Amino acid sequence: MKIALGADHAGYQYKDRIAQILRDRGYDVLDFGTHDSTPVDYPQYGYAVGEAVATGQVDRGILVCGSSLGIAMAANKVPGIRCAPVDEPYAAELARRHNDANVIAFSERLTGWEMIERMLDVYLATPFDGGRHAYRTQQLFDFGEAQRVRTLKDLERGEVTDARTPKDLVGVP
Ligand code: RB5
To answer: Atom of ligand 1 at shortest distance to CA of 65?
Structure first.
């Protein structure tokens, strides 16, 4: 598996440790930086890792910034990216099982290193459950004109309607 890494000045130390772990385990690592504490703009790293995943140059992405939030927001701007900022292993597991996260974002300022190691293992090992979750994750990429028309109707009504998952997908008779 090939993995792209990116971090700003508030996340590069964790990013470098993650890169070393991945290389030691035989992963192919594409490291977009940054490599020191000189202040840089986190959106650029979120975009780079996002595009690397979206264009198929790598299989997955891992991002680190101070909070995990800004760099995840940036990655999620790239079409085809589902980036989850996570701070504990069960969230990392659900990000894979339910959301098919292809990029994950960690916080260097708020999360201890041992937690990062656990989440890294979970992120790499957990499959996507598919089924009803695929039906939903697809909707994340369907925010075009038809979806906007649908949502504007919901706005007029003041309530979301017609959002029931098809029965055959949830296995309800
Ligand atoms: C940098 O100070 C910090 O704002 C950044 O790393 C990140 O936390 C943004 O969301």
So the answer is: 6
Say yes or no: CB of residue 33 within 6 Å of ligand 1: no
User: Can you tell me the distance from the alpha carbon of 63 to that of 71, in angstroms, rounded to the nearest whole number?
Assistant: 7
Q: Among all residues, which ones are annotated catalytic? A: 65, 98
- Residue 67 CB–ligand 1 contact under 6 Å: yes
In the listed set 86, 107, 125, which residue is the last one of a domain according to the structure? 125
What pLDDT is stored for residue 136 in this prediction? 95
Read off the pTM.
0.96
The reply to whether 51 and 121 lie within a common domain is: yes
Q: Which parts of the chain register pLDDT below 70?
A: 172-173
- What are the strands, taking DSSP E only, across 14-169? 28-31, 60-65, 83-85, 103-107
Q: What is the domain extent for residue 14?
A: 2-125
Taking residue 82's Cβ as centre, other Cβ atoms within 10 Å add up to 17
- Total structural domains in the chain? 2
Q: Are residues 117 and 151 in the same domain?
A: no
- Which pLDDT score is estimated for 171? 79
